[in-house]
Design brief:
Elements (H helix, E strand, L loop, with lengths): L3 E10 L5 E11 L2 E5 L3 E13 L2 E11 L5 E6 L9 E7 L5 E7 L2 E2 L8 E4 L2 E4 L8 E9 L12 E3 L7 E6 L9 E7 L5 E7 L2 E2 L8 E4 L2 E4 L8 E9 L12 E3 L7 E6 L9 E7 L5 E7 L2 E2 L8 E4 L2 E4 L8 E9 L12 E3 L7 E6 L9 E7 L5 E7 L2 E2 L8 E4 L2 E4 L8 E9 L12 E3 L22 E2 L41 E4 L2 E3 L1
Antiparallel strand pairs: 1-2, 2-3, 4-5, 6-7, 7-11, 8-9, 8-12, 10-11, 12-13, 14-15, 15-19, 16-17, 16-20, 18-19, 20-21, 22-23, 23-27, 24-25, 24-28, 26-27, 28-29, 30-31, 31-35, 32-33, 32-36, 34-35, 36-37, 38-39, 39-40
Length: 518
Amino acid sequence: MAGSWVPVMYWRFMMAGSWVPVMYWRFMMAGSWIEKLCSLEKKVTLTDSVESNSSPISSSISNYVTVTANATLKLDPTSPYTGETVTLTCSVNSESNWRYNWYKDGTYIPVTQSGRLSITENTLTISSVKVSDKGSYQCHGYQHDRPTSTSTSNQVTITVKALPTATLKLYPTSPYTGEKVTLTCSVNSESNWRYTWNKDGIYIPVTQSGRLSITENTLTISSVKVSDKGSYRCHGNLDDRPTSTSTSNQVTITVKALPTATLKLYPTSPYTGEKVTLTCSVNSESNWRYTWNKDGIYIPVTQSGRLSITENTLTISSVKVSDKGSYRCHGNLDDRPTSTSTSNQVTITVKALPTATLKLYPTSPYTGEKVTLTCSVNSESNWRYTWNKDGIYIPVTQSGRLSITENTLTISSVKVSDKGSYRCHGNLDDRPTSTSTSNQVTITVKGKMPRQGKSTAPTGSDTPVCHTERQRLTTKTHILSQSRGEKPCNLSSLTPAWGGGENAHKTIFMETNDGWIA
């Protein structure tokens, strides 16, 4: 394509009072002029005269002249958010009056004052930047009174970011009265933000001397009250320009009363050597660690000793008299320094393990008699009883000769095979605790009690022969029926087998013509 450069020269008047020749080249192509500012790289000899202040000035220039006029473009802010106002300022380090043209991605930008883009002197303003505005921008200046332009400016790039969202986090999420509460407002952005909080839609003014304080992006309530409950939000404001994030999510503070610990003792009245548990309960869904004290003094617990802790239970594996005293507990939250109120008081009183006492009746039974072994424990607790014979546990079935009623073992018809040494002990109904073993009693089974036979009384004696057996009488003398010619038996002369007395146990047997009768 044909074309040629045409030199054009004009004179620029300098403040020193002289005119300096300036030359630029105009290239003619396809019927249009393309101007290019050039530096004079030829030797130019000029002789001309002009009038300045009515005095002729003669100027002869014979040297090389370099003309420099550079445009510089600045972007503010350098990394704008959607909706922000963006300014592009084109500067020329020259005292001349310049007009400016802007280009985006190499294309001239026409500007109308009524749109989002406006020009004031050397500044192009985008009033509310959009993603569509992103791109590479340049500018250059030109003289309004003569065809002179600066070089094209440096390139600046607009990258439009979405306006960040603020995120609000509450800790703890469900606070108790008096706890410290923090509300942290976060913006996922490298910019410097200042933060503002509101409660139930109303801005929260914060004074550092009150219960509320702000450190960077955190609002702290030093000791939360019921009056602090409500819905909270936040947003960020840029430090250096009037730009805010969107409003954060909502968090709700619900203030709960500090829970009370409850302590339970089991068993409530333990015996020496029993396992004792103290269970500390807090009616709350939080995770608590528990601390116990005895008589107002903290109880250190080592898992290897008699004391151990499993979750909310303190266990004394084998209680001693030294463990007696008043106990309390309280709960401490796992994840923050908050404690319950102190629990109720429980008192451990350690009692000596009771002894069982075994009684046999009758003490020297005849074969076939009913025998009872009564096991007694001097204690108010509910006991179940176990018997053993010659050191071996006696199993009892209610359908056999042996039966149990409360604390009594009954042998309904004693046999010689029942003789031996017996002991008993008591077992608590509700826990694995036993008394010490009882004293020993011995069953010796004698042969059958005589029922028939002749007496050794003299022949023809009118005195009936009397024999004794255990039967409770309320009088000293018992007169048998005198039918069939029996003689009365005087009991006063009889000696019972196990002692006398008015209430001696006696059964009277008398020999008659029909045999022995009772």
